[in-house]
Design a protein that fits this description.
The chain crosses the membrane at residues 12-31. By secondary structure, the protein is mostly helical. It is built from 18 helices and seven strands. The protein has helices at residues 23-30, 40-49, 98-119, 121-143, 156-159, 185-201, 207-226, 231-235, 250-264, 267-276, 291-304, 311-322, 349-369, 382-397, 421-424, 436-445, 476-479, 483-499; strands at residues 96-97, 149-153, 175-178, 334-335, 341-342, 373-375, 378-380.
Length: 512
């Protein structure tokens, strides 16, 4: 039975890992060729397709390739007399947690902003569709009731006692919100970031929608700033231990303001960022801890616009990178013998994909500005980061000791027993009757048989620190996919898909 706390421990706990960087691992990482070894374009298409399998709400006719999924959650919001249909289920469960969903949306948007030209026309359209499926829902959450920001649907405790398809779920679809009396600066800041980032994605493609997104982002960010507090404190066991705000809310205030500044160029947000004094060190990036992401985003102004006002963020971004590089004297990051970045024992790939996104993006900025820096005595250029990023992506796609792709449907050998309700239970077209809350456990959860439905593109939690992976449905810490794992991988996949046929000069990819 899944308990979401398995992959949602305090990001700060990564510093408790004993840093073990074997010289052999360093050689594996540094000897990785930057030549093409995987079909990144195929992996990119599948990584975006995955989001269709996570859809909640009414599935539009003719717009769903994942045919074993159908309508679900059509009464979401009714307990509060509002329409909260749509959005995504976060992982293998049937709950809509807005905190990680908004982060997923921000990362999909950032991937599209940075690498949209490398995606190609079809995948750019698919990426926009994946973003819009989420932002349509987030807009409802932000505007349905004045003074409220809805932040989730579905009782997580009831949901995790059941193993049933989302189409059949009969558990309580409780509705959760934050308000001036029960603030949630973290989830509000992340929601503002998602809407602001998406507004950039749609600026040219749908100007009206872009304006709606940006105007709503401004209002939600103002709520986050004016009413300070962690949503974990307001909602307690309804979001903890599932998606507690372990890192606090200052990082989301920084992150949300950084995205609004990028979307508006309004000095108000830059002044707010300066007033925050957010100098916390970071050696991780995730749905919970946004410090490193905000600093990489802000550092673009320093590197590409030569604006010295942003030099402190560039320095903080490089301090973060020095904690990641395996041969840096300041590294606090462990690597497996096969060369995979290892931050946490459960759902480790969420950290790998998120950090890899930052490495590829900073590498791009460095290449465009011909920038280099040092970590102590270690010289770092754009290719240093690109090589490490490629090693992580290739490992996920099958270049690892087990020769296993951790993306479902990619390559000949991939996980067949993922921890995912809809994937593990026959679809309604095969078995129209509901199995009920408990009925599918024995037959479909505990069975060693492969899942009947392929959730193509899903990236699971990944192997352990010894490069081992059991492919066991009951081992949720390694076998469960999540939207935020995939969202962060979309950018690096597009980066390498486009880089195989074009020079390393990346300025033409910067579309804003």
């Amino acid at each position: 039975m899944a308990n979401l706390s398995r992959r949602r421990r305090d990001d700060g706990l990564s510093s408790l890992f004993i840093v073990v960087v074997f010289s052999a691992t360093v050689l594996v990482l540094l000897s990785s060729s930057v030549e093409c070894s995987q079909n990144y374009r195929d992996a990119l298409a599948k990584s975006i397709l995955f989001f269709q399998g996570q859809r909640s709400g009414k599935i539009p006719a003719g717009q769903q390739q994942v045919s074993w999924r159908s309508n679900s959650g059509l009464s979401d919001g009714s307990l509060a007399r509002v329409d909260l249909t749509g959005g995504y289920y976060d992982a293998g469960d049937n709950v809509k947690f807005n905190f990680p969903m908004a982060f997923t949306t921000t990362m999909l948007s950032w991937s599209t902003i940075e690498y949209g030209k490398k995606m190609g026309r079809v995948e750019l359209q698919n990426a926009r569709a994946a973003i819009r499926w989420s932002t349509d829902y987030l807009l409802k959450c932000a505007t349905a009731t004045p003074g409220r920001l809805y932040v989730g649907v579905g009782d997580p405790n009831d949901d995790h006692r059941c193993w049933e398809r989302p189409e059949d779920m009969d558990t309580l679809r409780a509705v959760y919100f934050v308000s001036p009396n029960n603030p949630g600066s973290d989830v509000a800041g992340e929601t503002a970031a998602a809407l602001a980032a998406a507004s950039i994605v749609f600026r040219a493609a749908d100007p009206r929608y872009s304006r709606v997104l940006l105007n709503t982002a401004r209002k939600v960010m103002q709520f986050a700033i004016q009413y300070r507090g962690a949503y974990s404190d307001s909602l307690g066991h309804d979001v903890c231990p599932f998606y507690c705000s372990y890192s606090g809310y200052k990082d989301e205030l920084l992150w949300g303001a950084a995205w609004l500044f990028k979307a508006t160029n309004d000095a108000y947000y830059l002044n707010f960022i300066r007033s925050l004094g957010a100098n916390d060190a970071a050696d991780i990036f995730s749905w919970d801890n946004k410090y490193a992401g905000a600093r990489v985003l802000l550092s673009r102004r320093s590197l590409l616009n030569k604006d010295m006002n942003f030099d402190p963020f560039r320095q903080q971004a490089e301090d973060f990178i020095c904690k990641i590089l395996p041969n840096s004297p300041y590294s606090s990051t462990q690597y497996t013998p096969g060369g995979l970045m290892f931050k946490m024992s459960q759902s480790n790939l969420q950290y790998v994909t998120a950090i890899t996104f930052l490495l590829t993006t900073y590498s791009k900025y460095m290449a465009a500005s011909r920038h280099t820096f040092t970590c102590g005595g270690l010289f770092v250029n754009s290719n240093t980061l690109k090589t490490l990023s490629k090693r992580q992506v290739d490992y996920i796609l099958g270049d690892n000791p087990l020769k296993m792709s951790y993306m479902v449907g990619y390559g000949p050998n991939f996980p067949r027993r993922i921890h995912h309700r809809g994937s593990s239970i026959p679809s309604k077209s095969i078995h129209p009757q509901s199995y009920g809350c408990q009925g599918a456990f024995q037959q479909f959860f505990y069975t060693p048989n492969p899942n009947p439905n392929l959730l193509v593109g899903a990236v699971v939690g990944g192997p352990n620190q010894n490069d081992l992976f059991p492919d066991d449905r009951t081992d949720y810490g390694h076998s469960e996919p999540a939207t935020y794992i995939n969202a962060a991988l979309v950018g690096p996949l597009a980066y390498f898909a486009g880089s195989t046929t074009k020079p390393v000069d990346l300025t033409d990819d910067i579309i804003t």
